[in-house]
Task: inverse folding
């Protein structure tokens, strides 16, 4: 039995908005001309799997990564020489416009974000700038480069939009009730994508993603926290596992399946 406030997603863990034009088929690789894709968050779990998928489909793959004093490319090292990376940040609009003008992508996948709910309470302004306004900056970069009629835009949205759930299971028409700075920032991203689609006729959509995992999942998320703690306990390095809310209910999928859904949308 699932009481009020508990999240029990439905069987399909990706909620997609209706396509702007239902007659437009999913993108297919062309025999004569390679499609070009630009991925924000390419060094993350989803970004790395999506890059692999698009390379398999013979795309030219570009990615945006933040400058750091140490390399954080471990998830894409095996495809490093097959992709093109650009230093950039979702808080820097001039940089994003420059990259967009140079790459002229057929498809943009916005997977970059400050994606940790707990951290969003510590860094609410940065989370808003990256996850919310960052989405706007990408859409504006597409529009100001004159690509709004030719570039498809995918926004990685989140089940955190539902927050204090208003119905179980959730569907596309379930009211949103975000309960963290992360969720509120993502809600702005969701609506600005919808607004740009309706205002400018852009092929822009949101995929509402529920929890998904893989061996590339970050160590601060619950599955990796549990497995790492179990290994430490077995090695005699710690005695117990410390977790947060144990009452949450989630549906889990695999990141590789999720990125295929992104491409199909």
Result:
């Amino acid at each position: 039995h699932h009481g009020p406030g508990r999240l029990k997603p439905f069987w399909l863990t990706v909620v997609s908005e209706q396509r702007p034009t239902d007659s437009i088929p999913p993108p297919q690789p062309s025999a004569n001309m390679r499609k070009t894709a630009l991925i924000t968050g390419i060094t993350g779990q989803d970004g790395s799997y999506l890059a692999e998928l698009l390379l398999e489909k013979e795309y030219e793959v570009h990615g945006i990564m933040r400058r750091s004093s140490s390399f954080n490319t471990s998830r894409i090292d095996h495809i490093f020489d097959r992709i093109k990376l650009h230093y950039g940040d979702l808080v820097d609009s001039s940089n994003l416009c420059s990259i967009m003008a140079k790459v002229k992508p057929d498809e943009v996948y916005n997977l970059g974000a400050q994606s940790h709910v707990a951290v969003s309470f510590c860094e609410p302004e940065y989370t808003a700038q990256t996850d919310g306004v960052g989405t706007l900056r990408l859409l504006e970069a597409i529009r100001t480069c004159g690509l709004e009629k030719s570039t498809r835009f995918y926004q990685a949205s989140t089940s955190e939009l539902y927050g204090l759930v208003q119905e179980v299971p959730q569907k596309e028409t379930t009211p949103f009730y975000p309960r963290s700075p992360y969720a509120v920032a993502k809600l702005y991203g969701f609506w600005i994508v919808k607004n740009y689609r309706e205002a400018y006729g852009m092929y822009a959509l949101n995929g509402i993603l529920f929890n998904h995992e893989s061996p590339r999942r970050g160590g601060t998320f619950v599955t990796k926290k549990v497995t790492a703690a179990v290994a430490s306990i077995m090695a005699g390095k710690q005695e117990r596992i410390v977790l947060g809310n144990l009452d949450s209910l989630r549906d889990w999928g695999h990141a590789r399946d999720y990125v295929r859904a992104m491409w199909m949308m």
